């Protein structure tokens, strides 16, 4: 944001938010709080939710459900809420990981609490609860705000499925159940909205769906578990085609291009391995889990890599950030800034 990079990470038994100068990496301020979160599956200890920066505030959501607002200029804590304690939320498989959605003075989070506290909106200035909606458990997907028809709509891909909510008061507009029959499963990819239609995808035998919101119902255009099953990395869309991962991370997923309209697979690279993909113009920036960055054409004709570079060591699962021609990426122990040349 501007000349600052916001970093949210774990340092020993602290969850730390830092502002870094983008050209040098120099720390401008740092704010932290204690955490006892431990991952039950041998992965990193979090946090996993991307910070949200808006109106001179930084909003973060920690692995144990600590939602906080900081002053962007100084890092001063403005308010915080322990959502897991306040709403009786269980730890879950990988802790809390819903990035805060900020819109019209509200901070909305898929908290995952019982008794109507599945999705909760907080006042962005005070942290006071404004409304609650659904009994849906928490997912690992980031919610988004879109305009469907003429109505601002918040889309949450919760543990139970897709929910469209009126951000003003939490009224549920429509729901579409989309969850694996496996108990040990998650929804993690963020919904994509393309020409008033919504694409969702999950692994664990769940699959992908292209939906049309008609009144109070999501109507499927197509669904399949054989096309583009995103485990944790959200796909991207360009010129009629989706690009993303098909299959679970631990089984070395394929990289694919898929026709959005029909669901037909344009091309696939089997056993590509896990990672993330973002869109930059007409190019794909693919960051593999072992730290290799690949620049490729976003074309349905074939997988066309243009350049490759090893930019990180260790395990890389965090989405990178692209701003002003510089890619910021991190592994468990490294943070790098990579200047991208024009292609």
From TrEMBL:
Q: Which Pfam families match?
A: PQQ_2
Q: Which residues, by range, are in coiled-coil regions?
A: none
Start and end residues of each Pyrrolo-quinoline quinone repeat domain: 15-268
Q: What name has this protein been given in UniProt? A: Pyrrolo-quinoline quinone repeat domain-containing protein
Question: Which species does this protein come from?
Answer: marine metagenome
């Amino acid at each position: 944001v501007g000349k600052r990079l916001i970093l949210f990470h774990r340092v020993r038994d602290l969850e730390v938010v830092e502002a870094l100068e983008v050209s040098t990496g120099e720390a401008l301020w740092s704010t932290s709080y204690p955490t006892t979160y431990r991952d039950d599956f041998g992965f990193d200890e979090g946090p996993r939710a991307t910070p949200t920066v808006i109106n001179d505030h930084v909003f973060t959501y920690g692995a144990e459900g600590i939602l906080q607002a900081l002053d962007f200029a100084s890092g001063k804590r403005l308010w915080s809420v322990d959502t897991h304690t306040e709403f009786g939320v269980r730890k879950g498989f990988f802790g809390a990981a819903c990035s805060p959605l900020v819109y019209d003075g509200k901070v909305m989070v898929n908290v995952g609490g019982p008794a109507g506290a599945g999705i909760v909106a907080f006042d962005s200035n005070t942290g006071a609860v404004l409304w609650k909606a659904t009994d849906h458990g928490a997912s690992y997907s980031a919610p988004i705000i879109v305009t469907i028809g003429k109505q601002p709509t918040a889309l949450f891909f919760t543990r139970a499925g897709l929910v469209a909510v009126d951000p003003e008061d939490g009224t549920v507009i429509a729901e579409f159940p989309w969850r694996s029959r496996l108990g040990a499963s998650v929804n993690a990819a963020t919904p994509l909205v393309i020409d008033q239609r919504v694409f969702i995808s999950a692994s664990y035998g769940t699959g992908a769906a292209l939906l049309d919101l008609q009144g109070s119902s999501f109507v499927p255009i197509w669904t399949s578990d054989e096309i583009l099953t995103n485990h944790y990395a959200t796909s991207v869309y360009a010129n009629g085609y989706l690009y993303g991962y098909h299959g679970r991370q631990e089984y070395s997923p394929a990289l694919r291009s898929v026709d959005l309209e029909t669901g037909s697979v344009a091309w696939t690279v089997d056993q590509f391995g896990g990672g993330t993909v973002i869109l930059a113009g007409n190019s794909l920036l693919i960051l593999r889990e072992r730290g290799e960055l690949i620049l490729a054409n976003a074309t349905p004709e074939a997988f066309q890599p243009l350049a490759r570079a090893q930019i990180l060591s260790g395990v890389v699962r965090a989405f990178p950030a692209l701003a002003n021609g510089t890619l910021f990426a991190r592994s468990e122990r490294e943070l790098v800034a990579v200047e991208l040349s024009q292609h």
